[in-house]
Amino acid sequence: MFQPVPIFIGLRYSLAREHGFFVSFITWVSLLGVALGVAVLIVVLSVMNGLGSELRDRLLSLSAHASLNAGGAAIVDWRQRIQQLKGAPELLGAAPYLDIDAMLSRQPEMSGAVIRGIDPALEAEVSSVAQSMREGKLADLEAGHNRIVLGRMLAYELEVGVGDSVTVMIPGAGQGADEGSIVPILREFRVAGIFEVGLQEHDSALAYVNLEDAEALRGLSGPTGIRLKFDDVLKAPVLAREAALRLRPGLRLRDWTQENQAYFRAIRIEKTMMALILMLIVAVAVFNIAATLVMVVSDKRTDIAILRTLGMSPRGILTVFMTQGVLIGWIGTAIGVALGLAVALNVPFLEQALNLHIMDPDVYYISTVPSETRSGDVVSIALAALALTLLATIHPALQAAKTQPAEALRYE
Q1: Which of 201, 219, 192 is nearest to 120 (CA)?
Q2: Which residues pair with 229 in a beta bridge?
Q3: Could you report the per-residue pLDDT of 35-74, keeping only the tens digit for each?
Q4: Could you tell me the CA-to-CA distances from 269 to 58, 174, 266, 272 in Å, in that order?
Q5: Whole-angstrom distance, CA of residue 222 vs CA of residue 168
Q6: Is 390 left (phi over 0), alpha (psi -120 to 50) or beta?
Q7: What is the pLDDT of residues 110-131, one digit of tens each?
């Protein structure tokens, strides 16, 4: 009958109370260190995931999941192309756009901006700008009326409000220009609304006009691109390529991962570095486990000699002390996972219960700390902690297995 005697003895050593005070203290410190490191890692990575998702949602609130463009040329048959795109898998909507780099001025203020020509009736299918309006309505952008909707920060910089007028300047051959010369094209627009999405890139440098007004300003006979929105943003790159196959060649496809590549690369690098730094907490606890086992091996030399004399193999001795170290690591990891999940899944509730304002709403656009716990991160953290704990037990256990009974019992 198989009896795991080494494991039984290892558990008895772990649960025994006759250790010295210092050995017991180091054991508890090691266990709490592993638990604290695992818990902090789960909480921090959950918050990093939440911030990444929040940033992605805000970036995509006014930017579609993918876009098709003609390299700056007008897409004259854009209505026909949108009809051809309908029915593509998981496609929620498609809308035309025309982006123009411009300068907006209202004496004495001036600011650069991107003017985006849109069809107000179709824009709601690909962005949430209509829900982000703070003043006015997106439907007020009627063709031929030269009306404009500004981001909140852009309106603040220009010191304008709804009903005020701003001058739009774009480079081009204006009226009365000599051949080959560049004279700015000037148009007067009236502010019809103000939006705010809580992202500096949009609120301070983006303005909307009707698509027909943008075409007249740019001198084109159609939009320069078509934006697409899908049901699953994470599948959008693949779905966009499938949808583009419905159209004849000639349009360039770009998805949100290409448009915002720098943002998400920075978040990924920051998350990786944060995980490595916080893993040092677990590493310190692991060194304590190794130190604890070294002291236990020294304290149990006589017991080891007796076990060897009774016939236990060096592998059995190795298992005894590895069991002791692994048990500390498993208990610490289990406590850490439970504590980390309890905090990560209840960050908003804890903020409210403790009356904490980590993200001051007067300073940040985000009023509460977002948290998104992913099972893959939790499993990876737990396995990494267990692996480090197992590695820490190898050297002390090997030293115990090398103990010679005659040497250990010489002075007993």
Answers
A1: 192
A2: 93
A3: 888 898 898 888 888 887 877 777 777 677 888 888 888 8
A4: 20, 47, 5, 5
A5: 20
A6: alpha
A7: 888 999 999 998 988 888 888 8
